[in-house]
């Protein structure tokens, strides 16, 4: 137990030295660390310490259900036209959260069913149930209803994609270490430390950024627009900036090109009037399709639609080649930049609405940091004084282990780019208070062995050997509690659990292995006949 070869001594010293070095940047002022670059590891402060914005977003599942109906309507129309022979159908109704349409030729019922089965989706999740239920009514009318399993799977997939889109949008803001996690089936928690403008964050995350280009239906009469009744194959959309007068416009349902085919978007200025606009670039497929459609419809207007609202409806004066276009409107530089970020990060598969928000000021965070540092300093001072008075030299070794353990915990957090929260500081203080438990057990066991008449070497060796079992068992039960909090707890509880688990591992290493090395080196060098413990 007290045999420490040279390689082992230097391994322990090197490990602790590296972790202490990793911790140093976290203790330096921010103005110093800012010049060191982002590659230098350091602890990030959470929302409750650095201040920032908190949002709880909830998915609009009704909007998702409507989007699925619209998508299925387009798929049904395309599928019936694509195959041979072509299956003629009447207008598709989406009333009552279901699709229904009539076959013009009842003899094609079986062929139509076969084609519908190819787009109705396979087993939804592990249920084996189809995403859409297909029924035939009155021999020639089909009714497609979304199943509960299919909708649940669609919500789960959409929320997973929405979480990633939200993450990309926030990363574009240049914020540091945001927390973005799903909560339940249809909610997302967003915490952005350091951001003091929650309105800008809400505006950015509130954009679904569903960009579409559609042709304007010129056959719609003013009476139809006033009554919001679109011709067959078209739809009425709001157009607040319509220079023709009415705040609505009729557009074709078929999409010329969508935002899914974008590869870039950026805020620029119109060379003619120097007003802010958004320049967009399509991928190869989108660029070719856009060029073909603009060639075939030169002289006709097309609508630029964002989140089911028309931004502008310019005329196609000439074919738009090269896969590039621009979106103009009543933009400011900030709103154009936000739209560019939203388009670059991709559209949200489901609309999100803010149901809870809060802002933490940096002053409150600074007060929390000062209180946490004071609590940590007081805890270290009291522990150091107690151990030094009670155990003398062995207490000095334990104190050295406690101080190094503080740096090691910070170094581990910095290495993994962890975020320290106020509950994390509580876990930090608790770890300091319990860091010397192992040394208390060891020292008391050594004292007992000396009272039994054993020599110094035997007492120290048995003390570390026998106490290590108790230390291991006690810390295992401690760690189990921390793991349960980490797995089942929410944000603040997880912050506490992370620091607690790191502290358990590092305190055992410093309090047992490191102090045992120091004691072994001292005994080997001085060969004491008695010890004062």
Automatic annotation (TrEMBL):
InterPro entries: Acrflvin-R, SecD, SecD/SecF_arch_bac, SecD/SecF_CS, SecD_1st, SecD_SecF_C, SecD_SecF_C_bact, SecDF_P1_head. The chain crosses the membrane at residues 369-389, 396-416, 422-442, 471-490, 496-523. It is a multi-pass membrane protein. It is found in: Cell membrane. Its main location: membrane. Residues 161-217 form the Protein translocase subunit SecDF P1 domain. Residues 247-350 form the SecDF P1 head subdomain domain. Coiled coil: none annotated. The keyword GTP-binding does not apply. Keywords: Cell membrane, Membrane, Protein transport, Translocation, Transmembrane, Transmembrane helix, Transport. Residues 352-523 form the Protein export membrane protein SecD/SecF C-terminal domain. Part of the Sec protein translocase complex. Interacts with the SecYEG preprotein conducting channel. SecDF uses the proton motive force (PMF) to complete protein translocation after the ATP-dependent function of SecA. Belongs to the SecD/SecF family. SecD subfamily. NCBIfam families: 2A0604s01 (TIGR00916), secD (TIGR01129). PANTHER family: PROTEIN TRANSLOCASE SUBUNIT SECD, PROTEIN-EXPORT MEMBRANE PROTEIN SEC. Forms a complex with SecF. Part of the essential Sec protein translocation apparatus which comprises SecA, SecYEG and auxiliary proteins SecDF-YajC and YidC. This is Protein translocase subunit SecD. It comes from Sphingomonas cynarae.
């Amino acid at each position: 137990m007290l045999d420490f070869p040279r390689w082992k001594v230097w391994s322990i010293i090197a490990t602790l030295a590296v972790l202490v070095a990793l911790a140093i940047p976290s203790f330096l002022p921010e103005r110093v660390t800012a010049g060191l670059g982002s590659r230098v590891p350091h602890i990030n402060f959470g929302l409750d310490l650095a201040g920032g914005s908190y949002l709880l977003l909830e998915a609009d599942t009704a909007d998702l259900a409507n989007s699925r109906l619209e998508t299925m309507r387009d798929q049904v129309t395309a599928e019936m036209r694509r195959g041979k022979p072509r299956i003629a159908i009447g207008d598709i109704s989406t009333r009552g959260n279901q699709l229904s349409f009539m076959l013009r030729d009842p003899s094609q019922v079986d062929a139509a069913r076969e084609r519908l089965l190819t787009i109705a989706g396979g087993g939804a999740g592990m249920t084996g149930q189809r995403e859409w239920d297909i029924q035939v009514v009155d021999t020639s009318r089909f009714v497609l209803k979304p199943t509960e399993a299919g909708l649940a799977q669609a919500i789960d997939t959409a929320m997973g994609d929405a979480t990633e889109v939200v993450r990309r949008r926030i990363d574009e803001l240049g914020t540091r270490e945001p927390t973005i996690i799903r909560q339940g089936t249809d909610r997302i928690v967003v915490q952005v430390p350091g951001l003091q403008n929650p309105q800008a964050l809400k505006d950015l995350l509130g954009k679904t950024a569903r960009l579409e280009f559609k042709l304007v239906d010129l056959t719609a009469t003013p009476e139809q627009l006033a009554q919001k009744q679109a011709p067959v194959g078209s739809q009425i959309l709001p157009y607040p900036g319509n220079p023709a007068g009415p705040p609505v416009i009729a557009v074709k349902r078929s999409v010329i090109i969508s935002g899914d085919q974008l590869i870039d978007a950026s805020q620029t200025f119109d060379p003619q009037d120097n007003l802010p606009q958004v320049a967009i670039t399509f991928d190869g497929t989108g660029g070719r399709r856009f060029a073909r459609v603009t060639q075939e419809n030169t002289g006709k207007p097309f609508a630029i639609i964002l989140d089911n609202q028309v931004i502008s409806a310019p005329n196609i004066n000439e074919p738009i080649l090269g896969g590039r276009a621009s979106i103009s409107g009543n933009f400011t530089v900030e709103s154009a930049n936000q739209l560019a970020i939203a388009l670059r990060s991709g559209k949200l598969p489901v609309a999100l609405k803010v149901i809870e928000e809060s802002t933490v000021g940096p002053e409150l965070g600074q007060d929390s940091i000062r209180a946490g540092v004071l609590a940590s300093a007081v805890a270290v001072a009291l522990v150091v004084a107690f151990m030094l008075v009670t155990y003398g030299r062995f207490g000095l070794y334990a104190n050295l282990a406690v101080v190094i353990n503080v740096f090691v915990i910070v170094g581990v957090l910095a290495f993994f780019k962890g975020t320290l929260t106020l509950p994390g500081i509580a876990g930090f203080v608790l770890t300091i208070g319990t860091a010397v438990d192992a040394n208390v057990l060891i020292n008391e066991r050594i004292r007992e062995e000396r009272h039994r008449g054993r020599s110094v070497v035997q007492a120290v060796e048995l003390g570390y050997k026998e106490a290590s079992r108790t230390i291991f068992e006690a810390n295992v039960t401690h760690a189990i509690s921390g793991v349960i909090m980490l797995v089942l707890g929410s944000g603040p509880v997880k912050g506490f659990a992370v620091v607690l688990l790191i502290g358990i591992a590092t305190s055992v290493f410093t309090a047992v292995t490191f102090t045992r090395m120091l004691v072994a080196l001292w005994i080997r060098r001085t060969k004491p006949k008695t010890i004062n413990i």
